[in-house]
Model the fold of this input.
Amino acid sequence: MNLTKLLLATLMIFTFGFTSLAEAKKSNQHKTTISKKAKAKVAKKAHKKKVVKKKKLKKKKKKLAKTAVKKNRSVASVKKKNKS
Done:
């Protein structure tokens, strides 16, 4: 009787030990993944960069068009002159 109780107790300790180990591993996993907040922050930064780039390009195009009208030339010829 005592032997069976002892075996049962050791079996329970082992199973509990392994399950708690698995739980600890599981709870630790979320720390390694990137949080939603961090992902959103990165996405926001990338979007802002894209918007700024678009704005700069638009400004450049507008300036070229203005120069072309001012000098009575096509935008392509103004671009060509700027490159040389």
